[in-house]
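USER: Write out one fold?

ASSISTANT:
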Amino acid sequence: MSRNDDDNNVLIYMLAGVGLGAIIGAAAGLLFAPKAGSELRDDLTGKLKELKGRTEDWIGEQRAKRAVDSAVEELGV
């Protein structure tokens, strides 16, 4: 197994963990929130947008690291 395969597996597990955490957090919020339904939906929408932004940032960082690693590997450094 190559380093690239390991990186892909890490990315898959990370995204699965983020998704599972988001689902659990949303369910807990629904169960324990003393807010009206519309307020709760607005809060969840905001949190999901924030999570999406963080995930996109993380994916961008990983792609940049992978590009640097590939360039270094090609140069034989």
Q: What stands out?
A: The CA atoms of residues 48 and 54 lie 10 Å apart. Residues 3-75 form one domain.
